[in-house]
Structures are given as C-alpha cells and as structure tokens.
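> call design_seq(struct)
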C-alpha cells in the first residue's frame, strides 16, 4: 500500500495523518519498492539491519493506526464524520450489539 492510499484511508476515516507524514518515504521507497521487486521476481538483497529497521517502523505505524481505530470506537468519533445515523453502535465495555428490532 502506498502512502497515497494510506492518506486516502486516513482521510476517509477522519483520522489525523500528521504522525504518518514523516514515514511516507519509508512506506513508498523502502517497503513498497522492496515488495514490488519481490512480487516481480527480482532478486533483492536486504541486510538484517535494514529489515529490522523497516519491521520496527511498520509495527509502530500499525500500532498508531490501531490506536486511532480504538479511540474512534470508544469516543464514537466514527459517528461524527457524516456517517449514517443508522450505524450500529457497539457497547465497547460489554461488546454487545443492540437488537435492531428494538430501535
């Protein structure tokens, strides 16, 4: 996934992209470029250090994204982004979905 696609997803979800901006080069030029080489059958040399750096950075970005999703779910922020008023709300404490028939 390119940084452009990531920006589009973040914007669609109403999430701030500021914390990702410094990582666009990493996403496009290290992760995506290496993935494309592998997908097209090209040989690729990756040092252990480069792999570990990329691995750690990607985990941090995934954790940030997860945190944004969790915060949106807990705060109900996803309901405030112009979404349908019929969106199903889940009680995040009990994880219960209300019975639609009782609405």
């Amino acid at each position: 996934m390119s940084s452009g696609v990531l920006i589009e997803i973040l914007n669609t979800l109403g999430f701030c992209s500021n914390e990702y901006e410094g990582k666009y080069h990493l996403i496009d030029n290290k992760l995506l470029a290496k993935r494309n080489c592998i997908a097209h059958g090209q040989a690729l040399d990756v040092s252990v250090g480069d792999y570990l750096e990329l691995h750690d950075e990607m985990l941090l970005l995934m954790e940030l994204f997860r945190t944004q999703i969790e915060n949106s779910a807990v705060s109900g922020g996803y309901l405030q982004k112009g979404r349908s008023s019929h969106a199903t709300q889940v009680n995040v404490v009990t994880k219960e979905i209300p019975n639609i028939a009782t609405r």
